[in-house]
Amino acid sequence: MHDTSNRKAERVAGNVGGTVLAFLSMVAVLACAAAAIALVQIKSLKTDIATLHRELGPLKERFAKLEQAEKAKLVAQQNATAEKTKAAAEPRPDQTGLSLSREDIQLIRDFIKPAPGSGAPTAAVNVGDPISFATIPLPSFLMEKVPKLLGARFTTRNGSIILVKRDSRQVDAVLPPS
Question: CA torsion angle for 134, 137, 143, 149 (degrees, to 10)?
Fold first, then answer.
């Protein structure tokens, strides 16, 4: 009777051992399948990364070129602004102005009496400014005394006398109020 119970126990132990072995085999097969799928995914991702790196190179170059073009445009604008400022500050060849002696200035002031500035002051007028106002011919008596004023015109603003040479389109002299 002991023999039959040992045999049954061995069979039960063998069945449990086979089941465990089958279960472990199944787990191993599933683990291998998961590992294979993971390797395929990793290779696919590596391929995608390599493709993106190849596409990124030309994009970086285009971006660098656009940056350089933008910098060049900005420098050109700054240079143009500087040139305009410099050109406005430098006397133009036709902007020689009038060089008047003290006697000439006194003679002009004696003959032309500007009204004192009244009300709101207007913008200051400087030598070289374009003419944007009406002028009056200088009297012939004054042109005879100061020959360099031949054909010149004048106006007054804020108590100053503004002189313009013949055929000039800009202010050639400003005599401030005395």
Answer: 30
